[in-house]
Design goal:
Elements (H helix, E strand, L loop, with lengths): L2 H29 L8 H6 L5 H17 L4 E7 L5 E7 L7 E6 L14 H7 L3 E5 L16 H18 L4 E7 L1 H9 L7 E7 L5 H12 L5 H14 L10 H5 L5 E6 L7 H10 L4 E6 L7 H4 L1 H15 L3
Parallel strand pairs: 3-4, 3-5, 5-6, 6-7, 7-8
Antiparallel strand pairs: 1-2, 2-4
Length: about 325
């Protein structure tokens, strides 16, 4: 082999090694516990900051001020994978047999999405509120995000925790946002009878479909080959198939009435995903589309409408 060919071969190997390194780094940037979103895949997987998102953060901070003043108990369980999972149980002034399980979104924690409606449930409705850190989030253990696969299993264990501790006669609402909304959708066919209704705010139908949409928004015309590699890596590192995040069948077989919420300006988890899940739901169901709301911001865009819709749905299906 001539010198020039050798240099080309060495260069090709170096480029290949660099590409593999970047893909692995990108995978962990998207799926790992901590992320700075500085890889190409990380940038694809991260929702860009907007003025609306800044307003949402201000909205959340106002809610957190109230939450920090409340009577909150730190609780924990252990997942079937052996991870310790952290929960935060906030009590109302008067004792209640109604509990709400709040489920947050991707690369967030208990102090993010569910903080938007904790006060509504605890102060406004007089319910207990269990807010949790999903696996690989906040103070919970674990290395990889499950995109509803792990989170739905863990949330069912949280329901068992509530029932074992507070009795078979409690009534439970599950309410999740974004990945938390998808988690709600994934678990509604398996919930115990104490769960009376479910709210899925801007849920995706399937993690790979969500990645495909995000990649195309980023400018990739054909993300499918990259997603196949990504999923193969996920099977090795995280131990599950991203196709198993699909929640259509569980929604078809939902054991409880479901309220679906989506913003009509959501291009991160497109509105059509929430509408599809609503159409598929095999139980009593309602759909709220909030005009002008971007991803996960329906409640901050029109809080009065959000609360009014929740009140009517809860009053209709919770029971006495």
């Amino acid at each position: 082999m001539g010198k020039g060919k050798k240099l080309l071969a060495v260069g090709a190997v170096a480029i290949g090694a660099f590409a593999v390194e970047q893909i692995i780094h990108g995978y962990h940037d998207v799926m790992g516990r901590y992320s700075d979103f500085n890889s190409i895949l990380g940038k694809i997987g991260n929702k860009s900051s907007t003025d609306a998102l800044s307003d949402y953060h201000k909205f959340l901070e106002e809610k957190r001020v109230w939450i920090r003043q409340q009577n909150t108990e730190y609780v924990s369980i252990t997942s079937d994978r052996g991870d310790r999972l952290q929960g935060y149980l906030t009590y109302p002034e008067e004792e209640s047999k109604v509990f709400v399980l709040g489920l947050h979104g991707y690369h967030a924690n208990h102090d993010y999405d569910p903080a938007a409606f904790t006060q509504y449930y605890v102060e406004g409705r007089g319910y207990n509120f269990l807010n949790v850190d999903h696996v690989a989030s906040g103070d919970s253990e674990g290395r990889y995000v499950g995109f509803d696969f792990f989170e739905s299993q863990d949330s069912l264990k949280w329901l068992d925790y509530l029932i074992d501790r507070f009795g078979d006669d409690i009534r439970i609402i599950i309410h999740g946002v974004s990945m938390g909304g998808a988690t709600v959708c994934k678990m509604v066919d398996s919930v115990p009878p104490q769960v009376k209704l479910a709210i899925a705010d801007c849920p995706f139908t399937n993690a790979l479909e969500e990645f495909d949409n995000t990649a195309k928004n980023f400018g990739l015309k054909n993300p499918e080959p990259l997603l196949k590699v990504f999923n193969a890596m996920n099977k090795v590192f995280a131990g599950y198939d991203l196709n198993d995040t699909d929640n259509r069948e569980s929604v078809k077989n939902s054991k409880v009435p479901m309220l679906f919420v989506h913003g009509d300006a959501d291009d991160f988890v497109p509105t059509r995903m929430g509408e599809e899940l609503y159409e598929l739901c095999g139980n009593e169901k309602e759909l709220l589309i909030v005009p002008g709301a971007e991803h996960a911001q329906s409640i901050s865009t029109d809080e009065a409408l959000y609360h009014k819709t929740l009140d009517a749905f809860i009053d209709k299906y919770l029971g006495e």
